[in-house]
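Chapter review. Work through the record for Site-specific integrase before attempting the end-of-chapter questions.
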Amino acid sequence: MRATNRLSAKAAAALGPGKYADGAGLWLVKEETARGKWVLRVTVHGRRREMGLGAFPAVPLAEARKHADAARAKVRAGLDPIKERQREKREAARNLHLLKDIALDAFESRKAELKGDGKAGRWFSPLERHILPKLGKVPVADIDQADIRDCLLPIWHSKAETARKAINRLSLCLKHAAALGLEVDLQATEKARALLGKPRHKSGNIPALPWQDVPAFYDSLNDGTVTHLALRLLILTGVRSLPLRFLHESQIDGDVWTIPAEAMKGRRDATADFRVPLVPESLAVIEAAQAHARDGFLFPSVRKGVISDATMARLMERREMEARPHGFRSSLRDWLAEATDAPHEVAETMLGHVVGGSVERAYRRTDFLEQRRALLARWAQYVTGQSGQLVRMAY
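Structure tokens for Site-specific integrase:
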């Protein structure tokens, strides 16, 4: 009888339950006539090993022989074919875990803890703009400090704050990959920082318009467009750009605008909605904005969604102004400090800042709504050129 190739395809299909040798260690083990499995017996480093080569008849005889020949070649090379197959599977699995997929998965996992479930895209954008174009298609297990350094070097000094956010997000992605059981270098980002050195550029405060110059700028926002109206309400209320841009008619009840907690920076508690008193000038701006409303949103963009922060910023850039929209919060805060005697806790609450420790906040239940209303009314009078008198608070 032949030492190898003892079986034929026709005979293998007809054989009943049992073990049948094809030769040179290849066996067909049948549980019943219709199905079975291929097993290769080899000796590696003096130890007998059995290696499965697939199910029969899904793997036909000819294919089983090819697999067996490849495994025997590994044995002749001094390798364990079973361990080599496991290694190859790990390599294949690793190559499926590209950084772009890990980054998206990490983003999805963190959406619940981000403002508005991350719909504004600020968490993901540093990765999307500065990391993924170069490293997105690289297996996460292959990313090292040199890759990260080369990726961020162009912006490390010129856009230090953006680079810092990008490398921090990347570090979270690597930790996410490790939590998934992938082999990654968790120290790669710290090593990259060492290679990049300390950023020369220091981020500063967002430029603000001096409060003395706000009335003239407010007066120039007079064409009734969405951008002009949004900037006017931003100035009048002192809120951040995000909740203003996503202002919905349902959030307004009479002369109070309630901003949902998830839209307030630093207010993750579901009960920490923030009330903004709406003075007559603010209500007039809102009434004008309702003519532009789409799906209930008062400040829609031209195509879809709401206007972006960049839209308002570009208006100021075109006028060659250094100040930016967010800076109007500083303008208001400086006016409160220099032109009123508003208590610190009232002035800080006007900007939505958390004031005092947890115990103090637990006992202080007020949000100073009426005190803030009086201050915002005088602020509105000031920015519209009606008054610049000192405001004294009544207690």
